[in-house]
Every structure is written in structure tokens, then in C-alpha cells.
Design a protein that fits this description.
2 domains; Rossmann fold; 8 helices; 6 strands; 39% helix; globular
Length: 228
């Protein structure tokens, strides 16, 4: 018998690539001192929240983050952390590790709007889904995830999590900013499913409910430690 499962989605802490303004999807870089300090505040805020289990993306910045959450929690008995590649960050293909502003210029040119280097301005002009298509088109190897590929992975991620948590009432899962944002566009009650939502902060918590029939909904989005 399946139970409804409360899911605390935590975005990993700030990384070196975040700090250096580099594209970071499936590529990885270590957490910064600031990133660790911010995560400690989140971990302290969740220290007395009981979790039946904790999970993370299989990228190291997420794994390091989940262990900070696990080590600070004083009311949960968590065993080995299961790593879920389905919850990796959005994949940016050939742009991985490149300067982020130069990357967005190329995406904007592929979208036909000129060399704009501000990602939010691009999304505001063409929408989040055309932005995904333009990113794939601009990628010289066309490896970057487009809307369909990302949507299929999100659905698969929820299905995997549903199977894993069938006897768990509350779990914590560390994922990534763009992936959590895209989940919110699809599953948040305050999103119409078409337009962009704010990017979640490093160390923030997004809370969802995974129902016994496999349906997922986000009920709180991008909550920082002081508001937990």
C-alpha cells in the first residue's frame, strides 16, 4: 500500500562554478565556503524535522549537500544515501563549463533576438520552452536538453521516487536549481504550466506531496532557512 509522501527538495549550496559565473549542469564543481555556511543554516533549520529517508542527485555537489543535512539532523536515522541520476541538473551539452553570459548570447542569437546575455531577459521575451529549444539549437553538438527531453526525465524522476518512497511519509531530496524550477513550472499550484517561475536560491527548500496514485504537486517553493 502506497502512502502520500512529503518531499523536501533542497537545492545544493553555492559552488565554485556558481561563483565564477560558469554554466553548470551535469558538470560539477565543489561547494564554496559560503555555500557550506548557507547549507549549515538550512541543515540547522531542518535538524528536528523527522525524515524517513534522504536522497540526492548523483552529482557531487548534491551528495555533499545531502550529507550536511543528514549529519545535522538529530531526530532521523538515515542509512546509506541513494543517489538518483534522474534528479540531476538540466544538461547544457557543449556549453558545460563555459562562461555563462557568453553562452546566453549564443542562445539568444539562436532564438533570433540578438546578443542578449541576461538569461531572464531572454526567457521573458521568448518563454521558457522556446529557450530550451534555442539552447539545444545553439549547442554545436545539439546535446543540451530540450523541453521534451527534460519533461520526460522529470516524469521518470517522479516515477522512480514514487516507487522508492511507497512506505515513507517524509523524505529529503537534494537536487539542482534549474531542475527544481522546471519541476515547479510543471507541478506548482501557483504556476500555470506555461511561464517561468523564479530561480530557487542555493540551500532553499521546495516542499512537494507525492500522492499514493503517483501524482506530484509542489505546495511551497523556494523557502529559505529563516522561514522554515
Amino acid at each position: 500500500m502506497y502512502l502520500a509522501t512529503e518531499v523536501y527538495l533542497v537545492r545544493h549550496g553555492e559552488t565554485m562554478f556558481n561563483q565564477l559565473n560558469k554554466v553548470q549542469g551535469w558538470c560539477d564543481s565543489p561547494l564554496t565556503v559560503k555555500g557550506i555556511d548557507d547549507l549549515k543554516r538550512t541543515a540547522d533549520a531542518l535538524a528536528q524535522v523527522h525524515f524517513d529517508n534522504m536522497y540526492s542527485s548523483d552529482l557531487k555537489r548534491a551528495i555533499d549537500t545531502v550529507h550536511l543535512m543528514k549529519n545535522a539532523n538529530i531526530v532521523s536515522k538515515i542509512g546509506k544515501i541513494k543517489k538518483l541520476p534522474e534528479f540531476r541538473e538540466v544538461f547544457f551539452g557543449s556549453f558545460e563549463g563555459d562562461d555563462i553570459n557568453e553562452t546566453w548570447k549564443q542562445v539568444a542569437l539562436a532564438a533570433g533576438i540578438g546578443p542578449v546575455d541576461d538569461v531572464q531577459k531572454i526567457i521573458n521575451q521568448i518563454g521558457i520552452y522556446k529557450f530550451r529549444e534555442a539552447t539545444k539549437e545553439a549547442d554545436p553538438r545539439h546535446l543540451a536538453e530540450n523541453k521534451q527531453e527534460l519533461d520526460e526525465r522529470m516524469v521518470r524522476a517522479i516515477d522512480v521516487l514514487h516507487d522508492l518512497t511507497k512506505n515513507e511519509k517524509r523524505v529529503l531530496l537534494v537536487s539542482h536549481g534549474d531542475f527544481i524550477k522546471t519541476l515547479a513550472i510543471k507541478y506548482w499550484e501557483k504556476s500555470d504550466g506555461l511561464h517561468d517561475v523564479p530561480f530557487p536560491d542555493n540551500g532553499s527548500v521546495t516542499r512537494g506531496i507525492l500522492h499514493d496514485d503517483g501524482k506530484f504537486e509542489i505546495v511551497d517553493y523556494n523557502v529559505n532557512a529563516e522561514n522554515l
